[in-house]
Amino acid sequence: MKTDLGGVNVPVLRHHNAALVLDLLRTAGEPGISRLELAERTGLTPQAVSKITARLRAEGLAVEAGHRASTGGKPRTVLRLVASAGYAVGVHLDRDELTTVLTDLAGTVVTRRRRPLDLGAGAGPVLDAVTGEVGALTAGGPDVIGVGVAMPGPLDHRAGVPGRVTGFPEWDGHPVREELARRLGLPVVLDKDTNAAALGLALRPGAPGSFAYVHLGTGLGAGLVLGGAPLRGDRTGAGELGHQTVQLDGPPCGCGGCGCLEVLCLAAVGRGELAEAARILGAGAANLVRLLDIDQVLLGGRVVLAAPGVFADGVREFLAGLGLTTPVSVAAEAEAEAGAGAGVGVEADAEAEAEAGAEVQGGDAVAEGAAWLILAPIFGK
User: Fold this and answer.
1) Which of 242, 325, 321, 236 lies closest to 284, judged by CA?
2) Cα dihedral angle (5, 10, 16, 20), rounded to 10 degrees?
3) Quick one: which H or E segment has residue 346?
């Protein structure tokens, strides 16, 4: 499967209707979906669906997957996505760690790798490490469509260059996307870590239409999804939650401001006061809920995942104290109650995985979301 992400150079994928059909095949999973169901859900004629699915089968992207009983007439043939028809690489370039994953077309992780990294070592050594890790993932010869890279912001995802990353100003303006594309010989997409994670979470079946993914790790940021799509802002700077001022006379932050949510929260974590860090995180989440009227808050990042109950409970309690939510512990309940207008659901993504069977692993939500930077356009997302 050959793709040029500068303009998706695959005839069968160029048409919007084909992307709609492919996405329904993706979300149907292994059980598959019939041509009649595809026509009903897309609004296309049965004849159009037949032509599209015939081309998808010819391209090796779809295959017949048996038959399903019909309410009348002969059994319906069902189709499913051939997930092994192509692969994507997701890269999470964190301040002190590099995580890479290889996923199939459905976003299922095939291989993952993790190694220490110093983002302050400079672009040359860091991109050497990325090149080596991606090379190790793709050494077996999988048909890789492209590489999605997620790193701390701020950054310009259109130009493919980072801005003044807090604590690492030397990355400002470095042509990360261009250089990696040259090194790897593959299309590369660069975006902020929280945006990538939010995109991957938004594409889960049953995901809420609006939510905030709040990531607390080596830094603090948010990925925002409104109307089912990530919100990046006109200058791609949306979601810089960590640099929201919450204490005017507070301690200085590496961004140049004072009393930022990030510096206060990480200071509490450094003191071992996780309940206080959760309360501070709750203040930031409350601002997002009030400003954007979102359905759900998802918590992630290594600090949260080290104590998911403390952070989920702390954020819930803070929001509840403001009358903004009711306590929720699992993803399915959060989505059902938020959809019914009962409040804003809050969960840690580790809890969602354990209790609701979510496919996204909390610790690698950013890396897996980075792979979706490559995959999403194939499905019209």
Assistant:
1) 242
2) -90
3) strand 345-348
Q: In this predicted model, what pLDDT tens digit does every residue of 329-378 receive, in sequence order?
A: 222 233 333 333 334 555 565 444 433 333 333 458 999 999 999 999 99
Question: Is the pTM higher than 0.85?
Answer: yes
| Cα end-to-end distance, the chain, whole Å | 19
Helix (H) or strand (E) holding 195: helix 193-202
Q: Any idea what DSSP says for residue 75?
A: P
- Would strands 211-216 and 296-300 be described as parallel, antiparallel, or unpaired? parallel
Question: Which ranges in 168-273 belong to alpha helices (H)?
Answer: 176-184, 193-202, 261-270
Q: What contacts 291, CB < 8 A, 6 or more positions away?
A: none
**Below-50 pLDDT ranges, the chain:** 1-14, 326-343, 350-362
Count of positions (residues) in the chain: 381
- CA dist 88 and 292 (Å) reads 32
